[in-house]
Specification:
The chain is mainly alpha-helical. It folds into two domains: about 30 residues, no CATH class; about 35 residues, no CATH class. The protein is built from three helices and two strands; from the N terminus they run H-E-E-H-H. The chain has a two-stranded antiparallel sheet with strand order 1-2. The longest helix has 14 residues. The model has no long low-confidence stretch (mean pLDDT about 75).
């Protein structure tokens, strides 16, 4: 029983050690850090190189300026297209 109390106390001490990022107020950081990793990369001007667009329906296939990928478009046409 005493072992469980120690781990609970240790957990509470660790959980309160984090503070919210002062810039975004979303991510948690250690008190000795100035910003979270996301805000730090934004401030430094680091650009995310993954600018690929993905299909909003399957989320997997890359888009080439289309509204949805070809496979999802075929499935959508088969299921939701009204007959002429």
């Amino acid at each position: 029983m005493q072992n469980r109390t120690i781990s609970q106390t240790h957990y509470k001490q660790r959980a309160t050690a984090y503070v919210k990022c002062p810039r975004c107020n979303l991510n948690y950081i250690l008190p000795n850090e100035k910003l979270c990793m996301v805000c730090e990369s934004e401030v430094k001007g680091v650009v995310d190189e993954d600018n690929d667009e993905y299909c909003p329906f399957c989320g997997i296939r890359k888009l080439n300026g289309q509204e949805m990928c070809d496979e999802c478009r075929l499935e959508w046409n088969m299921n939701y297209r009204q007959p002429n």
